[in-house]
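Field reference: sequence -> structure
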Amino acid sequence: MSSNETTAEKPTTEWSDDDYVAAKNTSFFSRLYSGTGAFDVVGPRSRRRLYVISAVIMVICVLSMIFRGFTPGIDFEGGTQVSIPASDTVTTSSVSEAFTAALGHDPESVQKAGTGEAATIQVRTETLSHEDAAKLTEGLASTFKINQSDVSSSDVSSTWGAEITRKMVIALIVFLVAVFIYIAIRFDREMSAAALVSLLFDVVATAGVYSIVGWEVTPATVIGLLTILGFSVYDTVVVFDKVEENTRSVFASSRRTYSEQTNLAVNQTFMRSINTTVISVLPIIALIVIAVWMLGVGTLKDLALIQLVGVVVGTYSSIFLASPLLVTLKEMREDVKRHTAKVIARRERAAA
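Structure field:
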């Protein structure tokens, strides 16, 4: 490495008081792009605010899951799904009315899937007996003047949904344990604990959003949840890797505290996290617009929604929860306390 490269890299880990003052006087976007450490993310006041925000989000999500619950898809709850080709006369409202007229009660849900000639109206209801299924098929065919063979129905057992749920819980536990072990080996126990809390926040917050808005939970939702947890781990590891780099020799100098060096690391990864999030969100939005809105593919809608929510939540937790929590855990250690006191004492002597 040349001397010029060494000189260029040095300010990324060592900043004087004048450097920070100058950085804070620059524009918002300049500070964001340059990663000067001018944004206070892990300072005591900022940490308290972020903990309160995160706690409020968690409480709202947990209360929603307790009192509002979820809207399980037919794959989890079981039931009968009936499909009929859509047309100008076969709409969600007309099919719902025909269903009620045939069986004497309303269906659980009626929605349109697909576009053009492939469009269908899908009716979901509780499990129907053979007699009721035949009555419904005959009633729909008679009402819309179509062949009974054009009306298809299928039953899904709730046992299958229970098996999916059990496997999802097992996969989630295995994933969290594997992440905890990896980060504990790669970094240290405080980083591992902070990363695990961040992942738990992602699970609760994402699930809470689904509960609040009433989106239907399907197997695609489960797949999407496990996918976004992987994204969150990646983002957290990127931030923690920079933190480790900046704090590797923190005790050898009395210029900056562990908290300040961590704050600098977070600032230096801001743009990378933002770019990664934007790059991840854009194809998801494209998936929603093209596959869901234009083509009406219901399964892709479930997958896209969970990923969109999860990417945003994962970015928030890796920066604004995992990093502040890491500093809080580190400041409980005696060596970090002694070093912080030494830095403060040095500054007081310099100011006298």
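Note: Confidence is low (pLDDT under 50) at residues 1-16.
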